[in-house]
Amino acid sequence: MTTLLLSTTDKQLQMLRDRQDKFGKDARKEIQRRKMIGYCDGTAIEKVDPLAKFDEPESTLGTSPEREYAVGVRRV
């Protein structure tokens, strides 16, 4: 394992983990090692604003388009 990765931040390791070479492999190993010992430097944590408004599409559950029924058939 590359000892250079021991001093990198979590955010830098996240960027390196997708590489398909020795550095990517070592970054994935270092991420796993840090998870096992419970280490987190806080740089890779995504912050979410609890007051942010999200545009949710209006639900169409329970509404169906108007249908034309044959003569003698009742809508239930």
From the alpha-carbon coordinates, what is the Rg to the nearest angstrom? 26 Å
The 3D shape can be described as: elongated
What's the number of helices?
A: 2
Low-confidence spans: pLDDT under 50, at least 5 residues? Answer: none
In percent, how much strand structure appears in the residues?
Answer: under 5%
User: Could you give a short account of the major beta sheet?
Assistant: none
Termini gap:
69 Å
Helical proportion, percent range: 25-40%
User: What's the order of the H and E elements?
Assistant: HH
User: What's the total count of β strands?
Assistant: 0
Report the average pLDDT across residues.
85
Could you give a short description of this structure?
The protein has helices at 10-16, 22-37. It is mostly helical and 76 residues long.
Report on this structure:
With 76 residues, the protein is mainly α. It has a domain at 3-37. The protein has helices at residues 10-16, 22-37. Helix 1 crosses helix 2 (22-37). The longest helix is centred in the middle third of the chain and has 16 residues, at 22-37.
